[in-house]
Specification:
Elements (H helix, E strand, L loop, with lengths): L6 H15 L4 H14 L8 E6 L6 H11 L5 E6 L14 H14 L3 E6 L6 H11 L13 E6 L9 H9 L1 H14 L1 E4 L2 E4 L3 H9 L1 E4 L5 H23 L2 E4 L2 H10 L7 H22 L5 E6 L1 H12 L1 H9 L3 E12 L2 E13 L24 H15 L2 H4 L8 E6 L5 H12 L3 E4 L7 H14 L2 E5 L5 E4 L2 E4 L3 H9 L8 E8 L16 E4 L5 H11 L10 H7 L5 H17 L7 H13 L11 H22 L5 E5 L9 E4 L10 H22 L9 H16 L13 H7 L5 H25 L1 H14 L1 E3 H11 L8
Parallel strand pairs: 1-4, 1-7, 2-3, 3-4, 8-9, 9-11, 12-17, 12-18, 13-14, 14-17
Antiparallel strand pairs: 5-6, 10-11, 15-16, 19-20, 19-21
Helix pairs in contact: 1-2, 1-3, 4-5, 6-7, 7-8, 9-10, 9-11, 14-16, 19-20, 19-21, 21-22, 23-24, 23-28, 24-25, 24-27, 25-27, 28-29
């Protein structure tokens, strides 16, 4: 590197030489050049020490190779594959003593060399410590390294280098960028035999901290096309020299671009250098096998293919999205013929095509193709999500309040109501890729860390943590996941408007949202995703009825029956109804089939008669039991809509009254709660009215349990008892660890139950004509719906003032 023109000229010539051959890494080249020139003025154990950090196949090794030819003071390049120096997993691997011997032996013979340690993070810590010993200024010299350039490479944190804000930081404040990356390298961990260990030895990190950190960015499509042109040019010249056959490329830029794109999704320098010439010359060799008189080969591109490539190259981000995230490849259509010794190959057409076997993993970044229009109902939730989107797309709204962009949101609510679909629709509308962590992966802190690490490189991006209330075996005990890994990742995010990392968490309605997640500076937004409304349910039924069906199906009736069901269950109805019809050889889905599939999903399969002793007597008793519930509910609780009453025995019950889930009840009065207790007792009392003591059966066990619990709650928790007054003993009992008023509570609860029993007996006698009519209808039909129930009651009790 001696140069009589001075250091400036020296740097200029070195830069020009390197940039001529290595594309898209100007910042790395300039950093290396400055360091090499500056190190001429500094006394050090080694001539220069670099850490190359960046994604695979971006030119780290190639730059080291170029330095050998560009710098006259360098004679040799020695590459050490550091995954071979790791005895953690394989006793046959090379050890720390091997690396010291290999390095010193080589340098003694080649004092003016580059030592390239590829993937330094894959060496075990003892080997890393040996390298620190060799190259640290504080250690005694073993051999003379003063003319040696040491380069260590790693792909760790390569996702971070894709962030525009970090690249800007390297340009504007390289010291802060260096410090930031060194701190992150120090936090990198690996799990060995279930134990977490640091990837880098502390002493080696201290050495790397003193050396020059050289960031490499992921190669752009333009650079990859240049690499393809370079590789094809070299092989073409060799072919012409060996064969004396002329090769002509018409519209060479379009040819190279199309050939490069056709290698997707494997768009990296190494793959392109090897495979692109093969695509061209495989055709040549196949042709020469059958046409020995070929003297010229011509490659052409049709106007159609040219138009295609120009269009896709205009929007490279969209092109890369389609290739890497939507799993589409670019296919070329060729034509070939040989005329008078000239073999002509033409790219006739080029087009996108869905990959037949897309190779993706669960933890890969995805692009959502779900839109809000694809999701039925949930209009309020969609409106709230749209507002959050504006905060990400219009940062001025937050900047005026001096607030950073939100770090994420929690979607909570009943299972099957669309939380996951809404999260994906949000990602689509935000135009942000997302990675998903679900099920067992939620219990693996390393998987969660990897998900966040991936999003850093693709930010703005989303981490979707699905159903964090999932349970699994932890230490032999069934438990929920630890949220600490999520908290750690949220705290580590330095949120920016340019490249936000957005977390979406889904959780069920019965699980509390963990307090640490919603502390200030973590997840600030919570949105409830409620049960589907009638319009949303109607959408699902209309989708089902796009299959062949009986035109007389009462859609409104079916919609009433599916209240409370989630999207997954509603999709199952259509699939299972169609399968049932096909199995029976029917040409269409009937209303009976639809309702039966709904009941199977909600309440279980019908039991066969032979599974029930004395089926006629059992069904009759069940009919009067359910009729008692239904008629008393209709009269005493008119605000609660009845969906159906059935005595068809199923795996979950011998009979039941089911209710619509459309009405939300926030609080109920004392009279309503007492009426509900009467309804619960109505089944047994109606049975005894018909069958006497034979009607006192075990089938009322659940009714009695709930009635007793409600009576106790009214007295001890809700302050509804006339004698005990406005009390709630639960908090006091917890605080003082003692029972309070136990005898009094027992007495009052028995009085409530006795009063409800007497009131129910009176109501059953008053309403008996309707109860018996409903029971007889159930014995005949097995099931009646809410409208038919209303009709029977009003016919038998026309003077009853009930409006349901």
């Amino acid at each position: 590197m001696k140069c009589k023109d001075g250091y400036g000229e020296l740097a200029r010539k070195l830069e020009e030489t390197l940039k001529e051959h290595l594309f898209d890494q100007n910042f790395a080249i300039e950093t290396i050049t400055k360091t090499l020139v500056q190190m001429r003025l500094v006394s050090s154990k080694v001539r220069a020490l670099f850490t190359f950090i960046g994604p695979p196949n971006c030119g780290k090794r190639y730059l080291a190779e170029l330095l050998v030819s560009a710098d006259s003071q360098i004679d040799q390049l020695k590459t050490f594959q550091m995954d071979q120096y790791n005895d953690t997993f394989n006793a046959e691997q090379l050890s720390a003593s091997n690396i010291e011997g290999d390095v010193t032996e080589f340098v003694e013979k080649n004092p003016n060399a580059i030592l390239l340690f590829e993937d330094i993070d894959k060496a075990d810590t003892q080997v890393q410590l040996s390298l620190y010993t060799l190259f640290s200024d504080s250690e005694k010299n073993i051999v003379d390294f003063s003319h040696v350039i040491v380069i260590m490479t790693t792909t760790r944190l390569n996702q971070l280098l894709g962030r525009q804000d970090l690249l800007e930081l390297f340009k504007n404040d390289p010291l802060q960028a260096h410090t930031f990356l060194m701190e992150r390298l120090g936090q990198e961990e690996i799990v060995i035999s279930g134990i977490k260990e640091k990837v880098f030895d502390k002493k080696l990190l201290s050495l790397l901290n003193e050396c020059t950190l050289v960031p490499f960015n992921r190669l752009s499509l333009t650079a990859l096309i240049k690499i393809g042109a370079q590789s094809l040019h070299g092989m073409s010249q060799n072919f012409i020299k060996d064969s004396s056959i002329e090769i002509e490329y018409n519209n060479i830029d379009m040819i190279i671009s199309l050939l490069t794109l056709s290698l997707a999704p494997y768009l990296n320098a190494r793959h392109i250098r090897k495979k692109l010439p093969e695509v061209v010359f495989n055709r040549i060799y196949d042709t020469l096998k059958y046409h020995e008189n070929v003297t010229k080969i011509s490659y052409k591109v049709s106007q159609k293919a040219t138009t295609f490539v120009k269009k896709v190259l205009k929007d490279q981000p969209l092109l890369l999205k389609k290739i890497s995230k939507q799993h589409e490849s670019i296919e070329l259509e060729w034509s070939a013929h040989v005329i008078k010794g000239v073999a002509e190959f033409t790219i006739k057409d080029a087009f996108f095509r869905k990959e037949k076997l897309p190779m993706t993993s669960e933890d890969a970044l995805h692009i959502s193709d779900v839109t809000f229009d694809d999701i039925a109902g949930q209009e309020r939730v969609k409106a709230e999500l749209a507002e959050i989107l504006t905060l990400l797309k219009e940062p001025a709204r937050l900047k005026q309040f001096d607030m950073p962009p939100p770090k994420g949101m929690i979607l909570y609510g009943p299972s099957g109501m669309g939380k996951k679909l809404l999260a994906r629709a949000f990602a689509n509308a935000a135009d942000m890729p997302f990675t998903v962590v679900r099920d067992a992966d939620l219990f693996d802190a390393a998987k969660i860390h990897k998900a966040y690490a991936q999003t850093y490189g693709s930010a703005p991006a989303i981490v979707l943590l699905e159903d964090i209330d999932v349970q699994g075996l932890v230490g032999g005990v069934i438990a929920t996941m630890s949220i600490q890994p999520i908290v750690d990742e949220l705290d580590a995010i330095n949120q920016s408007f340019e490249a936000p990392i957005f977390t979406i968490i889904t959780i069920g309605e019965n699980s509390p949202i963990p307090d640490p997640l919603v502390q200030t500076g973590r997840i600030d937004i919570r949105i409830e995703v409620p049960k589907l409304d009638m319009e949303a349910r109607r959408f699902f039924i209309e989708e089902i009825l796009k299959k062949p069906h009986d035109a007389s199906i009462d859609i409104e009736k079916v919609v009433r029956y599916i209240s409370g069901m989630g999207g997954d269950e509603l999709k199952r109805i259509g699939q299972e109804a169609a399968l049932f019809a096909a199995r029976k050889g029917l040409k269409e889905i009937t209303e009976e089939i639809l309702l039966e599939q709904i009941n199977i999903i909600k309440y279980g399969n019908k039991l066969e008669n032979k599974q029930i002793r004395d089926i006629e007597i059992s069904m009759a008793k069940t009919a009067y039991h359910e009729a008692g519930h239904a008629v008393l509910s209709y009269v005493l609780c008119p605000n609660i809509k009845i969906e159906q009453v059935t005595v068809a025995p199923r795996s979950d019950a011998l009979g039941f009254v089911s209710y619509h889930n459309d009405d939300y009840v926030n609080a109920i009065s004392k009279d309503e709660l007492f009426a509900n207790i009467c309804v619960l007792l109505g089944g047994r009392i109606a049975n005894m009215e018909k069958y006497g003591q034979a009607g006192m059966e075990t089938g009322a066990i659940t009714d009695l349990e709930i009635a007793s619990m409600q009576a106790y709650s009214a007295i001890a928790l809700f302050g509804m008892d006339d004698e005990l007054g406005y009390i709630n003993i639960s908090g006091i009992e917890d605080a003082y660890d003692k029972d309070l008023l136990s005898e009094k509570l027992e007495t009052r609860m028995l009085l409530w139950i006795d009063k409800a029993k007497k009131e129910t007996e009176k109501e059953v006698k008053r309403l008996w004509p309707a109860i018996e009519a409903v029971a007889l209808a159930l014995i005949e039909k097995e099931m009646i719906d809410g409208l038919e129930l209303k009709k029977i009651i009003e016919e038998k009790l026309p003077k009853l003032a009930v409006n349901v």
